[in-house]
Amino acid sequence: MSAAQDIIREVQAAGGAIVLTESGVKLKSDHGALPDDLVAKARAHKAAIIQALRPKKSRADWGRDEWQTYYDERAAIGEHDGNTTQVDAERLALEDCLSHWLAINPPEPCPPDTCAHCGKPSGEVGSDSVAVLAGRPNEHLWLHHRCYEPFRASRRRDATKSLPELSNQNVVVGIGR
Questions:
Q1: Looking at residues 129-139, what average pLDDT do you find?
Q2: How confident is the model at residue 59 (pLDDT cuts 50, 70, 90)?
Q3: Do residues 166 and 84 share a domain?
Q4: Which of 4, 29, 95, 134 is the most buried (most CB within 10 A)?
Q5: Could you tell me if 68 and 95 lie in one domain?
Q6: Comparing 93 with 124, which gets the higher pLDDT?
Q7: Of the candidates 35, 53, 71, which is a domain's last residue?
Q8: What is the pTM of this model?
Q9: How far apart are CA 26 and CA 39, in angstroms?
């Protein structure tokens, strides 16, 4: 836990609140003044408190810069900590970006007992169908066994088209072409 989160909890425990405003933060209390040492602590950590209170940008909202940063971090970790070559580290970083995009952009739900790829009745579970998790709580998709690979390939194409072109140093990995 960060110092900012600790201070926010201390203020709340003292009956107060820290409110994010356009100009920064404001300390409020319905139970009288907050202790001076707590107010001083909050002032000393103002920037960190503002950062902690700001809404976090979800990966679903990431733009080129966020994906590039994520890709660069994954490639660096793979090359240095994973002891792989730069080419392999970049390939693995790209796969990780694709996997993350697929996880945060699940396929649209389809009617029960209907193949999510071809739209035809899915048949009996175990004989003509396979269940695939869609990434949403308590939802799943049905796919014919023969439709799984085309469905997977289609989803990867969606991810490839949606992610920006990612590069590391002078190596360009064109996944958005």
A1: 65
A2: low
A3: yes
A4: 4
A5: yes
A6: 93
A7: 53
A8: 0.58
A9: 10
Region of residue 143 (left: phi > 0; alpha: psi -120 to 50; beta: else): beta
- Is 33 in the same domain as 87? no
Residues 94 and 162 in one domain: yes
- Give the count of domains, the chain: 2
Average pLDDT over residues 97-112: 84
Q: What pLDDT score was predicted for residue 177?
A: 32
- Structural domain of residue 40, as residue ranges? 3-53
pLDDT value, residue 126? 55
